[in-house]
Amino acid sequence: MIAPAIGRANLEVFADTLLALARRDHSIVVVTSDSRGSGKLVPFGEELPDQLVEMGIAEQNLVGVAAGLAMTGKKVFAVSPACFLTARSLEQIKNDIAYSDHPVKVIGISAGVSYGALGSTHHSIHDYAALRAINNIDIVAPADNFEAREAIRAALNHPRPLYIRYGKKPMLELHAPGARFEIGKAISIRDGSDLTFIATGEPTGRALLAAQALDAQGFSCGVISMHTVKPLDSAALLNAARHSRAIITVEEHSVHGGLGEACATVLLHQGISPPFKIVAIPDEYTVTGDQFEIFDHYGISADGLAETARELLSRR
Amino acid sequence: MTSDVYRGKESALQLRQLQRKSIEYRRAILRSIKAANAGHTAGSLSCIDILNVLYNYVMDITPENFASTARDRYIQSKGHSVEALYVVLADQGFFPESELKTLSRFQSHFVGHPTRKVSGIEHNTGALGHGLSVSVGLALGAKMSGSLHRVFSLLGDGELAEGSSWEALMAACHYELDNLVIIVDRNGLQITGATEDVMGLEPLAEKFAAFGCAVRSCDGNDVASLTRAFDRLPFERGKPNLLLARTVKGAGVSFMEDVVKWHHRVPADDEYQAALTELAAAESAL
Do the chains contact at B134 and A58, CB–CB below 8 Å? Predict the structure, then answer.
């Protein structure tokens, strides 16, 4: 068993990728809300000042302005902390981007519990739920540097409104060379006949570590990176449910309205009911601490997920 | 950016034509609302002279150039007065006026707030406090691209209680968007009552000026006053243009004027006939 290599923060990969793309494509415009530092976009602003628009601490205006810029033919990335962007500006995302159908790329930075120690004001564990209920916007949560980079490349020419969230901590590299990324298409990292972890975003590496640990204990566990929360790759989910006995979903989000409930709905509609567990953040004010400490607290860890898996598999 | 091309159009005939259009539009608004048995009557009557002058005198927006990036842009932030926009767009030839018979009907594109499904509409509005931000983005994008088109944004006065309007205004001034023309339909009423009772706005002109706008005011129900105001665009270099258009809610139909209940009341048969009679008299008097 080879431990996955540790890469960089997805946020850094996002910023570097966007800068590289924007050097070649001057129609790319980044709009920020006093957030270029948090978004690792200081080098972007220094090198391409004409392609970065500062809106100050005004997220509602940021999203409306982003829509207007997109209407003039710009490829607009609206970059702001996910917690504010997807709550305070939710109506602007709903009406000015999604309903009006302007293909703005809404980028939630320091997402999930990345701002762990800053408390619940700064956590975005509602964003999948909020945006899943809005028509005409896709939702992507990259798991590692490869997905972080490919998500931005794919976003550039994505014809629809799109939300992508990025975190601040270095991520494990999960994918073999030659992996392919496509919005709406899950990536199978490994197969398993006993159980499959369906994970999205930054906890995916932890699901892989759990699967590897379970391997050593004689269980066969698969991991699917469901980087696109909407539209959900139902085929990949159903395939996993048919080829393994149990399913665990893993996400950096509230248990309500996220990946887990999306998967449960697909399975039940198909009449498939394997042993199933949603591992996510419970309906409480989240404990504070480092992102990984919070993951550990809620069982979004190699040990926690392995234990949940063993318990689920022992049920029958 | 210059408005020179628009100067000199204000001949007596032109003015008379605009006055006639305002009456025709009022009739069409009432006809549409009556047929649909729904609509925002008084707010549409309040802003119709502004739309008349914008579409027939000021803005370079036609069905023929609507795909061109050089066209001017119009965003109606007070989306609830969509009936005013629909009748003007129909008159401009964006779609046959007969289509307006489907207003508010099941599956009609003619919804009670603007949507891009209707030819001639740039952006979906209806939730208040959104249009100015989008307009700022449009004006900023034009500046960034070196495009000379102008962006016209119609706001209601009641909607100025939405904080996002002021966020947008700050940005418009910060970026010195003199290609942006903000028109405030200052009729003084909102659904509950007088704006000054619901949430006071005054001193409004001073507030806009303090933000950094070039503020002018006019009689927003007088096409001559409106054309004179728009003739002076841009009001000042390096500042967003803010036209405070003093209007009367329900303007043109005496028993609707300045009466709160007409915000979205549909005229009964006798009221409808009385309104048409009054408009016919006004037309004869031209």
Answer: no
pLDDT digits (tens, 9 = 90+) for B189-242: 999 999 999 999 999 999 999 999 999 999 999 999 999 999 999 999 999 999
Q: Quickly state the pLDDT bin for A4 (edges 50, 70, 90).
A: confident
| Cα angle: A255, vertex A256, A257; to 5 degrees | 120
Spatial distance between the Cα atoms of B123 and B74, rounded to a whole number of angstroms: 9
Residue-level pLDDT at B61: 94
pLDDT for position A1: 56
DSSP 8-state assignment for residue B11:
-
Chain A residues inside the 8 Å CB shell of B145: 72-73
Token pair, residue A185, equals 């298409």
**Separation between Cα atoms, residue A85 and residue A9, nearest integer Å:** 20
Which residues of chain B lie closer than 8 angstroms to A95, CB-CB? 124-127, 130
Residue B105 to residue B245: CA distance in whole angstroms: 32
CB pairs < 8 Å spanning A and B = 102
Please spell the DSSP secondary structure of A43-84, one letter per residue: HHHHH-GGGEEE--S-HHHHHHHHHHHHHTT-EEEEEEEHHH
All structural domains of chain B, each given as residue ranges with its CATH number in brackets, are 12-285 (3.40.50.970)
What Å distances lie between residue B102 and B52, B56, B143, CA to CA?
23, 25, 39
Q: What is the arithmetic mean of pLDDT over B156-171?
A: 98
The verdict on ipTM greater than 0.90 is yes
Cα dist from B158 to A58, B153, B243, B255, B267, whole Å: 21, 15, 16, 22, 23
Instruction: Tell me which residue in B73, B116, B139 faces A100 most closely, judged by beta carbons.
Output: B116
Domains of chain A and any CATH numbers = 6-172 (3.40.50.970), 187-313 (3.40.50.920)
pLDDT cut 90: percent of chain A above it: 96
Chain B segment 67-126 residues within 8 A of A by beta carbon are: 69, 73, 115-116, 122-126
